[in-house]
Amino acid sequence: MDSRYETSDSQRNKCAACYRQFNKMEHLVEHMRVSYHSAHEPMCGICRKRCRSFESLREHLIGPLPKAECERIFKERGCDICLNILCSRSALRMHRDKCQFSRTNNGLLYRMANLGIQDELRIDSTRSRVVAMACKMVGGGSDGSLDLCARVCLVDEHENIVFHTYVKPNLPVTNFRYLLYCTTYYIF
Fold it and tell me: What is the per-residue pLDDT for 1?
């Protein structure tokens, strides 16, 4: 096929994490440099798009202008509490009964106790388990040079999010940079 007849989609440069499109490769490179995409960001289970937060994932699935295909599948098989996509409607019904982010018990202590790390350790004690903790930092102080924790994420050895929460910094945020720090691995 002659290159003069390529579609406009093939000429645009697309970010693999958030699917933003750019006319020039330089713009994509700059986007990747400043966006700090992480493998631990919430991801749509249908189209695999990564979102900055669970709130933006919720908007992608069921917000005012959702992606049509994702919305259709999510309405059929998606958990509206934890935003996971299940394989069938019956699996969704069973999942909702024991969803760890249940709205009836949404306290931090309950969610931490409900992670299931200790229970799985008792069941399968033949191999060690690894959990990583990461903090995403923003800038505080008059010049934005102080590191303030804004997000905490616990991830298992398969890079599945075990726990995620935002933290309100104790000082006003003056620099909204989003850097990953404090990665610590715990072996059980």
Answer: 38
